[in-house]
UniProtKB/TrEMBL annotation:
SUPFAM superfamilies: MFS general substrate transporter (SSF103473). One of its GO terms (cellular component) is lysosomal membrane. It is a multi-pass membrane protein. GO terms for biological process: vacuolar transmembrane transport. Its main location: membrane. This is Solute carrier family 46 member 3. The chain crosses the membrane at residues 5-25, 71-91, 103-123, 129-159, 171-190, 196-217, 262-286, 298-317, 324-343, 349-370, 411-431. PANTHER family: SI:DKEY-5G14.1 (PTHR23507:SF32), ZGC:174356 (PTHR23507). The keyword Transmembrane applies. Belongs to the major facilitator superfamily. SLC46A family. GO terms for molecular function: transmembrane transporter activity.
Length: 432
């Protein structure tokens, strides 16, 4: 069977399977901590104000919020370093070994994590086993490795700059659409069948996409590029040596103007990623807390509505042509949206504040494409290894920082964390 040069189906199914369980992680942890701290079952009701009205249990909500936030912090901290190391090695070495390894390895790791989550949920095992499962799955690279490999795959196929930007934006859009469908499905899954069935469905999707990536997806790197870095040495050290040499050559071969531009674009990319994903990572916890006290159905719809930013951002990239204007609009979108979230107290307004955030994803594909144009084809893997490394590191640090601040401020003002996110948007705005 002839292979296909289509990485989009891999991204689509991966997004669906991941976002089918992503909203469940915080809900599952939240419910388990509730049961441990109150010695009672989690209150399930269609009344979204139930936690504000139940005065006998209201004192537990702040402690549950704090424990759930700290659990997320521990999970991210312990899984960050292995994931970062594997991302740098695999994506940089993909310039020689091929892009498929950077796609297949994270799929295996995600499948391990999903099966572990299903096991903990089904047998009601200790919650902290999930931290070990997260650490194990991070040894296979994680999301940063997967996306770095996919974007490098697209860069191999596209010679035209506009085509590259549109296909990268198309990947982001596909993530959003499938993530939205999965998020809506999650709420009904949990309400009707509990947590186990979403995990089973996600594992089946991940098996399917793994088979596609192994047997159908065609490799883009058929041979080592002529201008690639030549290496001599033992096989076990070649990946590390190529990673170091590739990253060094990426900066050394560029003239001073291109080097400065590349560094500035990376600063904008990482600082914007820090403030956006840090604030967005706490949306679910904020919605579970009073006075919103959302049900799993409302959280599913809220997550689905949030993922429409991928579709609207794709439209924005298609309509606007000047790259820096697109990035500027995306930063302003996040700043205004986070400011409004900080003062939101009702369900209607919580849905409404998603509107200012509709263009928030636009800067990412544009910045990736702009940086990719500066770097020759033989060093695309090194570029996207750096981007994935910085993005993964930034997101992990931002989740740790934002969760710590949220745990410290949730008692007196839960919306403070979103004010902090809006304020930090000044950094990428200034550099831009």
């Amino acid at each position: 069977m002839k292979g296909l040069f289509l990485v989009e189906p891999v991204v689509a199914l991966y997004a669906f399977s991941s976002f089918l369980i992503y909203p469940l992680v915080q809900q599952f942890v939240y419910r388990r901590f509730w049961e441990q701290l109150t010695n009672s079952t989690y209150p399930i009701s269609d009344n979204t104000s139930r936690c504000a009205e139940n005065s006998s249990q209201s004192s537990y909500h702040q402690e549950v919020q704090k424990q759930a936030s700290l659990f997320s912090l521990y999970t991210d901290l312990l899984s960050t370093l292995p994931s970062l190391a594997v991302t740098l090695l695999l994506v940089a070495y993909s310039d020689r070994a091929g892009r498929k390894i950077t796609i297949i390895m994270p799929l295996i790791g995600t499948l391990i994590y999903t099966v572990s989550f299903l096991t903990v949920s089904y047998y009601e095992l200790n919650l902290y086993l999930l931290i070990g499962a997260s650490l194990l799955s991070s040894l296979f690279g994680g999301l940063g490795t997967f996306l770095g490999g996919c974007f490098a795959y697209i860069a191999d196929l596209c010679a035209d700059g506009h085509q590259k930007t549109m296909r990268m934006a198309g990947l982001d859009m596909m993530i959003g659409i499938l993530a939205g469908v999965a998020s809506i499905s999650t709420g009904y899954f949990v309400k009707s069948a509990g947590f186990n069935w979403p995990f089973i469905t996600s594992a089946m999707c991940q098996c399917l996409v793994l088979l596609y990536a192994v047997f159908i997806l065609e490799e883009t790197v058929k041979k080592v590029p002529e201008d690639a870095v030549a290496l001599n040495g033992p096989p076990q050290s070649s990946a590390f040596e190529h990673m170091i040499s590739g990253v060094y050559k990426m900066f050394a071969r560029a003239d001073s103007r291109c080097r400065t531009t590349l560094i500035l674009l990376m600063v904008v990319f990482t600082s914007f990623s820090f403030t956006y994903f840090g604030g967005a990572s706490l949306m679910t916890l904020y919605e579970l807390n009073k006075p919103l006290c959302w049900t799993e159905i409302l959280i599913g719809y809220g997550s689905a509505l949030s993922t429409t930013v991928f579709l609207t951002s794709f439209v924005g990239v298609s309509v606007f042509t000047y790259c820096l204007v697109i990035v500027l609009m995306g930063i302003m979108s996040v700043m205004s949206g986070m400011l409004l979230v900080a003062f939101t107290k009702t369900t209607f307004l919580m849905f409404l504040v998603r509107v200012p955030l509709l263009l928030s994803i636009m800067p990412f594909p544009v910045l990736r494409s702009m940086m990719s144009k500066i770097i020759p084809k033989s060093e695309q893997g090194a570029l996207f290894a750096c981007l994935s490394f910085f993005e993964n590191l930034t997101n992990s640090v931002s989740v740790a920082v934002f969760n710590s601040v949220y745990a410290a401020t949730v008692a007196w003002y839960p919306g403070f964390i979103f004010l902090m996110s809006a304020g930090l948007c000044v950094v990428p705005l200034f550099v831009l």
